[in-house]
Amino acid sequence: MGCVEQLNYEILLSKVRFKECSTFISSNYDEYYQVQPGYRMMNVFIIGVPPIYVAVDGDNIIFPYTKPCHGTFVLTISSPEEVKNIKTTGELVK
Amino acid sequence: MNNEHKKALLLLGCPEVPVQTSLAIYISDLLVKSGTMVTIAGNNAALGLVRTADPAGHYIKDTADLDATIGALAEKRVDADICYVLIHNDAGVSYLATAAALISGEAVGIIFGNDAMTLAQLCDDAGLEHIRARAVHNPKPIISKVNMEVERWVASNS
Predict the structure, then answer these.
(1) CA-to-CA distance for B42 and B59, rounded, in angstroms?
(2) What residue in B sits closest to A4 (Cα-Cα)?
(3) Would you say residue B1 lies in a domain?
(4) Domain boundaries in chain A?
(5) B67 to chain A: which residues are within 8 Å by CB?
(6) Cβ of residue A89 closer than 8 Å to a chain B Cβ
(7) Fewer CB within 10 Å, N or C, chain A?
(8) Residues A75 and A65 sit within 8 Å (Cβ to Cβ)
């Protein structure tokens, strides 16, 4: 998965349509934010059809990750720094 | 037609649908002939197919890694007057929406493959421009639409 391979991620949802990822995030997390396409998280640029949701769960950040041949995944990574970033730069939805 | 100051970006999807490589070369040729600078971005496999099909570089002038291109667009290091996104799966719609949000010019989806109608509906729902045809192995169903689309863009920028 390119740059994301260098990160210690966990896959929560695999090879689905982007809309399913948005529904998964909005349905399963109490705190999530909306970001614009191209939002940078570590070395990853978020790709997707707005609204793009990124959730926070403690120190974990949950986000959609799209690859051309494999569809979209929902990944989670422990990153207090990215959690802090999304809280300041993302638009709180819930 | 003289589009020498214009920049075009072609974003390739997964190369599993046969017509993609031919479409990429065909669209690049149309744009280059109009004087447009063309960059084709894709993953290694997609770029390998277009480079192999045009070993002397008659039609393919510049290529770039897809992820790096998205990063460059997001950081405003790269821009395009027109971005054609080749789409045959759901991921392609995500790339089109992203390109539409990041470039200052137009972003248009070129939708082909067996799911063309469903993908076109997703684009409509998201307000994304596109052309479509159910072309899988034979590019003929979509070529006339590609011709009209590129002619439209070139004319609107002359």
Answers:
(1) 16
(2) B67
(3) no
(4) 2-92
(5) 2-3, 45
(6) no
(7) C
(8) yes
